[in-house]
Amino acid sequence: MRLLLAIFLTAVVFMSLLTLQNVTTAQPSQSSYTVSLDWFTLQVTYPSEVMPGDAFNVSVQGTPANVGVYLQNLTVTVYYGDTSGLHLLTSQPLVVNSAENYMYYGAPSTGSFSKIFEVQVPEDAPRTSLIALFSETTIYNNYYANSYNGPYPFSYWYYGNPLFYSFYPASTTSLDQGISPLSYIKATTPEYVALQSEYQMLQQQLNQTQTQNKQLQTTITQQSAMISQLNQQLASANATLQTYEAVAGIFVIIAVAFGALSVFLMRSKSKPKDAKEPEGSKETVAS
């Protein structure tokens, strides 16, 4: 009964721990979030839940909003928050391009890109959510025109007078930031710690009960073997006793037979003497 009770209580506590901690052997589910910056759209993919001490990867898929955009720099900074404020975990450059590589003509677009960065969760992290701050620095073309009179190809007529324009390339640097949620840290709670302590205590009691049960099983096995041996000895003794009783019965029969034979022989020997005694008596009378 104690063994069954311990097993039942252990199962109840274990199921409670699974409910709180959501332990699973399958791969963790993934979540996705879209960050819209001025010139790039970022598709951020990350695990939905992590534990303190875990290291996990975050995938970033970037798509430009304009074919003429040159991404000079893209940086990610990861924080987690608690009652005391925000705490910095990591800050990493995802894209780094020199401004000298920017071209005014041709195809200066950076284009789509895919990046992966790692986040290490502290061992003492509280139960909270991670957030990521993305910062972009972009360069894009910006032309301006200057009007003048002269035989240049850029011209049009305005009230019958030809006007000529020349276009000068220029570049503009743009800065923007966007926030994305990241994984939820499933740190332990006081309720979980209490249940875990109770689970460990019940597990210890269960181990002790199982040890006692094994000892009792061993004792029962030994006693059963002893009882079986005693039963065998008793059966052998009963068989020997029956043999002795049979032999004793035979000896009794033999003794009775010998006794009867002796009596018969004694009587047989005493009969002739008894028959001659009358003749002697007659001879005595005649004398």
Structure overview:
- This protein has 287 residues and is an alpha+beta fold.
- It folds into 2 domains: 1-22 and 189-276; 24-143 and 170-185, Immunoglobulins (Immunoglobulin-like), CATH 2.60.40.
- It has 2 helices and 12 strands, in the order H-E-E-E-E-E-E-E-E-E-E-E-E-H.
- Strand 1 and strand 2 form a beta hairpin.
- Helix 1 (2-21) packs antiparallel against helix 2.
- The longest helix has 97 residues, at 190-286.
- The termini are far apart.
- Mean pLDDT is 76; it is low at 1-26 and 148-168.
Strand order of the largest sheet: 3-12-8-5-6
State the separation between the terminal residues, measured CA to CA.
113 Å
CATH topology type of the largest domain: Immunoglobulin-like
What share of residues is helical?
40-55%
Distinct helical segment count:
2
Stretches where pLDDT is under 50 for at least 5 consecutive residues are 1-26, 148-168
**SS-based class:** alpha+beta
CATH level-4 homologous superfamily of the largest domain: Immunoglobulins
In terms of topology, how is this protein built?
Elements: H1 2-21, E1 30-36, E2 40-47, E3 49-50, E4 55-64, E5 69-82, E6 85-96, E7 113-120, E8 129-141, E9 144-148, E10 155-158, E11 161-168, E12 171-185, H2 190-286
Parallel strand pairs: 3-12
Antiparallel strand pairs: 1-2, 2-4, 4-7, 5-6, 5-8, 8-12, 9-11, 10-11
